């Protein structure tokens, strides 16, 4: 196996099968663009289990992704895609940066859900982009921008429905997309409590990485409880 890329949370390896990569989830957690960083044994396992199950749930609801299958507790196989250097954020309720940026009330409903683009550039702190910026930087065409928005809202609908079955509210989430060899835009990277903001419908208790960002609880316990709620749906 040849290591192709190592990020904050994952390693990507080439396999012997053409256009198939192996993703290994790491026992690392970061926040604030890497300013806060820790090693938590078992974190990679939980992210892999959760993300794999969510990808499968997406497939069952007609959402295409790069996911093929989970092959171990910390690894999965995915199809190779050319990642579009955009973070696509969908907001159902105001939280995080948008509250400070626009002076909104925390948990103010976004009706309809808001889709935002951010430039995947750590050295620039992932700045927010308008559609015109995306076109100017040649990151996506106008038609691709609309396809990304449509796909993001479809994913939001499916993911929000799953969370509601778990008595959880999907506040917002970040996803990434890639182009496969045929040029199709498909969901990529991961979906997990690392990339979502999720709260209990009644208590507003966090079931996401905010417990680590804000030092309000155990990330491993939180992710384990979230995974148990997912397992109860099966």
UniProtKB/TrEMBL annotation:
The keyword Ligase applies. Pathway: Purine metabolism; IMP biosynthesis via de novo pathway; 5-amino-1-(5-phospho-D-ribosyl)imidazole-4-carboxamide from 5-amino-1-(5-phospho-D-ribosyl)imidazole-4-carboxylate: step 1/2. Residues 3-228 form the SAICAR synthetase/ADE2 N-terminal domain. It comes from the Bacteria. SUPFAM superfamilies: SAICAR synthase-like. It holds the Pfam family SAICAR_synt. Keywords: ATP-binding, Ligase, Nucleotide-binding, Purine biosynthesis. GO terms for molecular function: ATP binding; phosphoribosylaminoimidazolesuccinocarboxamide synthase activity. Its EC number is 6.3.2.6. It catalyses: 5-amino-1-(5-phospho-D-ribosyl)imidazole-4-carboxylate + L-aspartate + ATP = (2S)-2-[5-amino-1-(5-phospho-beta-D-ribosyl)imidazole-4-carboxamido]succinate + ADP + phosphate + 2 H(+). The keyword rRNA-binding does not apply. It is an enzyme of class 6 (ligase). GO terms for biological process: 'de novo' IMP biosynthetic process; cobalamin biosynthetic process. Belongs to the SAICAR synthetase family. PANTHER family: MULTIFUNCTIONAL PROTEIN ADE2, SI:DKEY-6E2.2. This is Phosphoribosylaminoimidazole-succinocarboxamide synthase. It comes from Salinicoccus hispanicus. The lineage of its organism: Bacteria, Bacillati, Bacillota, Bacilli, Bacillales.
């Amino acid at each position: 196996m040849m290591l192709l890329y190592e990020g904050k949370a994952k390693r990507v390896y080439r396999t012997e099968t053409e256009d198939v990569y192996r993703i290994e989830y790491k026992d690392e957690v970061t926040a604030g663009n890497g300013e806060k960083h820790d090693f938590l044994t078992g974190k990679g396992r939980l992210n892999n289990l959760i993300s794999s199950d969510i990808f499968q749930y997406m497939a069952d609801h007609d959402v295409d992704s790069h996911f093929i299958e989970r092959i171990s507790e910390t690894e999965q196989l995915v199809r190779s895609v050319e990642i579009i250097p955009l973070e696509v954020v969908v907001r159902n309720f105001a939280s995080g940066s948008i509250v400070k940026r626009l002076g909104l009330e925390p948990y103010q409903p976004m009706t309809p859900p808001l889709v935002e683009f951010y430039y995947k550039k750590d050295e620039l702190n992932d700045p927010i982009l308008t559609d015109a910026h995306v076109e100017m930087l040649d990151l996506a065409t106008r038609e691709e921008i609309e396809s990304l928005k449509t796909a993001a809202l479809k994913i939001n609908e499916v993911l929000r429905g799953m969370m509601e079955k778990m008595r959880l509210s999907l506040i917002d989430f970040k996803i990434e997309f890639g182009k496969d060899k045929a040029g199709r835009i498909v969901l990529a990277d991961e979906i997990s409590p690392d990339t979502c903001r999720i709260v209990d419908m009644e208590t507003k208790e966090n079931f996401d990485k905010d417990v680590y960002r804000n030092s309000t609880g155990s990330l491993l316990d939180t992710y384990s409880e979230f995974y148990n709620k997912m397992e109860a749906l099966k």
